[in-house]
Amino acid sequence: MPPRTCSFLTTGISSCSVHRPRPRSKSKTRRLLSSRLPERSGARVTIRKTPGKPGNGPVIQQSSKQALDLGMNLKLLLEQVKQLRSEITLPVVLMGYINPILQYGIGNFCRNAGAAGVDGVILPDLPLRDFNEHATLFRDYDLLVIMLVTPATPDERIRLIDQASSGFLYAVSASSTTGARAGFTAEQEDYFRRLAGLGLRNPVLVGFGISNAATFQSACRYGAGAIVGSAFLSMLSNSTNLEADIITFVKGIRSVS
């Protein structure tokens, strides 16, 4: 397991805030700020979206389109990660669909991602049976493979996914699109409690709908942390002062009422 991720898993994961920055301009300074400042503000890992078809939810769709319009591709993304490695110590996880990686060549991707300093991947549309075919390749290049579970995933399936996953387990909070929500329903909290009661070997991070301190604290009450995506991207797209706005955003999410 990569040492950066070992550190992430053993130091303050319960108060982590995870973001999914994506370039909205060609400015290197802007990219550095959007990746470096969350670490200074208390984030514990950075998740970067790989290029490909837009993700779900309007904010993710728009930011994906902007990245593709600017010429983003896997080769460029890995070059950026390599450059960022001298600026940040956070674990870097890439999240996206499997097809661009298959087109790039899964062996080439694993080798180049490992060399660039990538710590892990989240591939929501990679079936468990297909992952098992490539598991050795990911391990050979010290790449964690973080898998997802949803409220509809049966307990037996969750345990199988937990055994295959490494680093942490991504708990999708709802079987719907991404985006900010005011809070969690009683049904969602029952789902979080169900996960907590399964005795899983991986820490569980909750994603989808984490947009403020209340939802972050609720997720941390049942899991090991939370993943902040759409809300962070919305802040980036509207920011006129990245340094101040990123620090305020991350500290605000992590604040205890």
List the helices and strands and how they pair.
Elements: H1 3-10, E1 17-19, H2 28-41, E2 45-49, H3 58-69, H4 74-84, E3 92-95, H5 98-104, H6 106-116, E4 120-122, H7 128-140, E5 144-146, E6 148-149, H8 155-164, E7 169-172, H9 186-196, E8 204-207, H10 213-222, E9 225-227, H11 230-238, H12 242-254
Parallel strand pairs: 1-2, 1-9, 2-3, 3-4, 4-5, 6-7, 7-8, 8-9
CA-CA gap between termini: 35 Å
CATH topology, which one? TIM Barrel
Oligomeric state as shown: single chain
SSE order, as H and E?
HEHEHHEHHEHEEHEHEHEHH
Biggest pleated-sheet summary: 9 strands, parallel
Strand segment count: 9
Number of domains: 1
Rg over CA atoms: 17 Å
Number of helices: 12
> How does the helix and strand content classify structurally?
alpha/beta
- Poorly predicted tracts of residues: 5-26
Under the CATH scheme, the architecture is: Alpha-Beta Barrel
Strand order of the largest sheet: 5-4-3-2-1-9-8-7-6
Describe this protein with a few key phrases.
globular, 9-stranded parallel sheet, TIM Barrel, 12% strand, alpha/beta, 257 residues, single chain, 9 strands
Describe the protein:
With 257 residues, this protein is an alpha/beta fold. It has a single domain, classed as TIM Barrel (Alpha-Beta Barrel). Helix content is 50%, strand content 12%. The chain has twelve helices and nine strands. The protein has helices at 3-10, 28-41, 58-69, 74-84, 98-104, 106-116, 128-140, 155-164, 186-196, 213-222, 230-238, 242-254; strands at residues 17-19, 45-49, 92-95, 120-122, 144-146, 148-149, 169-172, 204-207, 225-227. Helix 2 (28-41) runs parallel beside helix 12 and helix 4 packs parallel to helix 6. Residues 5-26 have low confidence and may be disordered.
